[in-house]
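Task: sequence design from structure.
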């Protein structure tokens, strides 16, 4: 892809996923959208890194982080249509692999665990959306069309078309439907922990009702017996 085509593709990605671009010109997006700036800088750094150019790729990454607040290692492999919304605090590790049309929000970390060599960062497939503050750690795989909720901590593979929420992340389906493309609805995500608490609460209420019913039956049954078992004339002559 030509330089002009690369720039146009990233501007188009921003327009397609950020409502704030509605009245922004291409020049405004290139000059003031840190997510677009950081990814374009990474394209240059990554090509130099592939050619084993020393120092310069890391220097470009360092300057991009200083300007945008987004740190992308030159070794990371990123597909087409990648978009970072807002972007402050985003970290993308060296062996990260990102597919096409992936969206990240601010504070996302695609990081490693430990000091092992080789592949140590996540692989994110196409059409994945990762919410603000989410942490994806280790050489895990996030399947096509998956969605990671804000502030989730994910350390295991995520199946395709699945939403993950919580810490540690819990995979859940979204109303049984397929998740496709970027989706910024972080309010109506399912919460398996809350669902479990509601289920337990309902069960406890049911058991309390059964206990109350049994207690009432015992009281009614006890009223039919004579509380004083003594019969006949009193020994005192009464």
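Answer:
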């Amino acid at each position: 892809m030509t330089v002009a085509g690369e720039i146009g593709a990233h501007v188009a990605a921003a327009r397609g996923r950020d409502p704030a671009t509605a009245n922004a010109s291409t020049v405004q997006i290139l000059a003031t959208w840190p997510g677009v700036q950081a990814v374009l800088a990474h394209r240059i750094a990554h090509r130099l890194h592939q050619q084993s150019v020393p120092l310069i790729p890391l220097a470009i990454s360092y300057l991009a982080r200083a300007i945008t607040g987004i740190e992308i290692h030159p070794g990371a492999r990123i597909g087409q249509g990648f978009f970072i919304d807002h972007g402050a605090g985003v970290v993308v590790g060296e062996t990260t692999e990102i597919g096409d049309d992936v969206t990240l929000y601010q504070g996302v970390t695609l990081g490693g665990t430990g000091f092992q060599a080789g592949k140590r960062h996540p692989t994110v497939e196409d059409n994945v959306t990762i919410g603000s503050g989410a942490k994806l750690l280790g050489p895990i795989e996030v399947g096509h069309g998956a969605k990671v909720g804000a502030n989730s901590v994910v350390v295991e593979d995520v199946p395709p078309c699945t939403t993950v929420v919580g810490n540690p992340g819990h995979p859940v389906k979204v109303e049984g439907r397929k998740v496709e493309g970027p989706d910024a609805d972080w309010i109506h995500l399912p919460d398996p922990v809350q669902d479990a608490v509601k289920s337990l609460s309902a069960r406890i209420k049911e058991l309390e009702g059964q206990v109350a019913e049994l207690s009432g039956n015992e009281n009614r049954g006890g009223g039919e017996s004579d509380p004083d078992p003594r019969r006949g004339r009193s020994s005192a002559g009464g």
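The chain has two domains: 3-188, 189-219.
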